Amino acid sequence: LTSSKPNRRGHWVLAGGVLAFASIAAAWWIRPARPNVVIIVLDTLRPDHLGCYGYERDTSPNIDALAAEGVVFELAESVSPWTAPAMISLMTSLHPEAHGVYRFPNPGRLNDNATTLAEVLKARGYATAAFTEGGYAKPEFGLDQGIDVFPRNEGDDDSHMSNLEHGSRIRANVDRALAWLGEQSGPCFMLFHTYEVHAPLLAPDEHVQLFRPGWSAEAEDAELQAEFERFKESGEITREGVQLTSDHLHHCNPERPPKYQFEASARGLLPESDELTQQFVRDQYDGEIHFMDRELARLFEVFGDDTIVVIVSDHGEAIGEHGVFGHGSSYHTEQLGVALIIRAPGVAPQRVSGLVRSIDVMPTVLDLAGALPDEFLIQGKTLGPRMRGEDLDARPSYSHGRSLDGYETKMRSMRVGQWRYIHDAEKGAQLFDLEEDPGETRDVSAEHPREVEMLHRLLESQVDVDARIRELASGAVAREDLSPEILEDLQRLGYVGDDE
Ligand SMILES: [Zn+2]
């Protein structure tokens, strides 16, 4: 804590390994000089729907094959259950309130002073490109920081819903990515993102049929139209019809449900069963994963042995758990859990069982690429030691959702060991014992006041640390302006956040 200097781009460099940091061990395996780096973000992908995470359906043969040659992190969590903050955290290793991109619906822009993964690699001579599907993964929120080539798609300014109007984009983006990769002669970094498994779920029939035999979009439409006609003529609404419209709304997700659905609600008519709806959505979702997996295989084919490949989701998806379909709304495992698979040259295939966080991705990739700066302002830690079989201290996984414009976030989650603590400024505290109750169905906060108190203190420390890091990263406060007491405080809080 005795010296600090802005690096050549004016980024904050904190000496002494203060908040997070990176004491970098010597290279621990033979790796190519400047390996290519590819990060593939599969938006809204639940790990438990992939074969390599134990799913009983054969949804993901190509991802599974890559996973068999890499490291599968069995328990990984995102910093946030929605896209904008989660993507920026992957690229900066900062929590949402530290990097500042977390407001809904207008997230704002990452401050130039924050350092992105792409910037670190670009400074080492990498060519950089990003191929995303717009919405909350478009360039403007800061994903373009350090990226040379970031083409836009028609509909990028709409939400992910633009798939409804513009169709699936994964095929075109894979083509573009392949073309760009084919032009590179030196080391390159590519960020690839797809909304394919994000609602609306519109996979080609043959992929859905693997999991829902006999289903077709055309037949579903015809049935719906027949039901709507009957309704128009006779005013009749059937339970089968309500089930059909409910299923349709869940996978097509149009902005306004049809009159039929309004009328059904007005009459108090519900779908036949929640389980039927959930199964329908699972079938559509699995069809999308299968389709996406086949498209991704075209990318996997060109990655050489000298390429570090990361497959990660930005957040998960609820399919009926806790009464929810979708994401962004709660802090349970179905929304925060992410897939994380890393295949890297010279790293033996294995499965890692301990809890890791999406903020660990950036330092891990830089460590694997031999490009981790000695000191820089990040909150994750490299998973390199875990990938060589070392046990590390368990680290808490902290998540923060979204703040509506003009309001501060009310909900946060802190996961430590067997406990998930969720704090909601309005509804109070909830505690779940993940060992006894992995589905997080029973709040046990009343039975464990000591754990609640400890987790709440940890959570408040994290909020404090994030606010201070944000001041530093934004340049609003210069390090020289901070008193030694505050710096010590930061260090203490940082270590609390990381090690206890
Ligand atoms: Zn997302």
Fold and architecture overview:
This protein is of the alpha/beta class and 500 residues long. The chain contains 16 helices and 15 strands. The chain has helices at 61-68, 83-92, 96-99, 117-123, 162-166, 170-183, 205-209, 217-234, 239-252, 259-266, 274-300, 333-336, 361-368, 384-387, 449-474, 484-499; strands at residues 36-42, 71-77, 103-104, 127-131, 188-194, 307-312, 318-319, 325-326, 337-343, 350-357, 397-400, 403-404, 411-416, 419-424, 428-433. The strands form four sheets. A seven-stranded mixed sheet has the order 4-5-1-6-9-2-10, with helices on both faces. Strand 14 and strand 15 form a beta hairpin. Helix 8 (217-234) crosses helix 9 (239-252) and helix 15 crosses helix 16 (484-499). It binds zinc ion. Zinc ion binds next to loops.
